[in-house]
Amino acid sequence: MLCRFSGTIIRLGRGIDMAAWSIGTKVVVDPLISCMVTNKCNACASGHRNRCPKINFIVDRKGGGLAEYVTIDVQHVHKIPDTLSLEIAACIEPIAVAWHAVKRAKFNKGDTALILGGGPTALFVLRILRSVSPSSFILLSDANPTRRSLAFKHGATEVLDPEHTHFGVTGIIYKATGGFGVHAVFDTLGVQSSVDAALLCLRTGGTLVNMVMWKKNVMMNMNFLFKEIIVTGAMAYDNDHPEVIEAIASGQIQGIEELITDKIQIEDVVRKGYMTLLNQGDEHVKILVRPHEPPPPSEEASAKEMTNDKEAGDEASQSISTGSLKSGREDKKPAAETVKRNPSAVSSIPITTRLIERRPKLSSIRTNFVELVE
Fold it and tell me: Residue 47: CB partners within 8 Å, gap ≥ 6?
């Protein structure tokens, strides 16, 4: 996905706190954007951007993470400690997805878990569960032998093929938990059989976390009320990046580099990237792509752009402050017209709040690694 990438700051925009940010800082981007209309959107008003009905993700209009440079609003950028590589940083966004799901399950040390599916997200969930409870019983179920092997290597107590297991998932779960069932189930498959297995394997008061968007409606046995099972969703992440960065930097989450199964150049993105995933996708977890590294923009070009940004931004702000967008007065240019005629105005007003307000931003980030696909 082109919104999952790490990079290095090469230029700072107007309004940036120079004491907090500096050229050369390694960063990762939190690409989740929402409407931020707090007087109309309850999700944004409560600070839960991931629940906004207009949720979207940053993909720069010139290539996202595959572009040599991107301009990002400072609120979407997080510093990376020097101890973390840019390769690891490119994986922080999908790890944040798994981190958020584990938080939604309220998984604690000593709890047991079942992970349905063995793809990249499931493996990240497994690593995080192990960081919380190193010795807990954790079962991962997947029909693919390569994924089962990876799961066992990365901390699963047991792995099984649901299609060729005599006792089935339920039998193994109840045997391992003394007949109680697991505390949490993480469903990364989104099929009828997975939700059926989840409800059967959960103990009284257990939690089912749905981590996937369903293609079809599911039939659910609502008699799970007898066990007071909690069914919840985990949508992306909710300001989880700082916690994930700290957890990796402190060593709480380990082995992430082992889940990066290949690193390729952008010239090979089709042959070694997409074609590999189409034909040998089950053998890979994360493939990282490194874009070209052109020389940074010249000082003269940077100064000229900053001047254009200021002039266009001031003009757009003046149009908004005079109320010409609402009144239709012709003595001031509407902000939309300003943006259309002067492309620099687009870069001076963040995409998520364009024509509403200007926020400090990082003028340029040189992208170093982008996750190709999950």
Answer: 239
DSSP notation for 152-219 = HHTT-SEEE-TTS-SSHHHHHHHHHTTTS-EEEEEE-S-SHHHHHHHHHHEEEEEEEEE-S--SS---
Whether residue 127 is contained in a domain is answered as yes
In a domain, 75, yes or no: no
Classify residue 291: in a domain, yes or no: no
Specify whether the CB–CB gap between 178 and 148 falls below 8 A: no
Report the alpha-carbon distance of residue 276 to residue 258 in Å, rounded. Answer: 18
Amino acid code (one letter) for 316: A
* CA dihedral for 262, 265, 271, 277, sign (positive or negative): positive
Domain holding 191, by residue range, is 93-238
Query: What is the structure's pLDDT at 284?
Result: 79
Number of structural domains, the chain?
1
Residue 54 lies in a domain: no
Strand 202-210 relative to strand 182-187: parallel, antiparallel, unpaired? Answer: parallel
- Dump the DSSP string for 250-289: TTSS--GGGGEEEEEEGGGIIIIIIHHHHHHGGG-SEEEE
298-338 confidence digits (pLDDT tens): 455 444 444 444 443 333 222 222 222 222 233 333 333 32
Q: What is the CATH number of the domain that holds 176?
A: 3.40.50.720
Distance, in Å, from the CA atom of 331 to the CA atom of 58, rounded to the nearest integer, reads 35
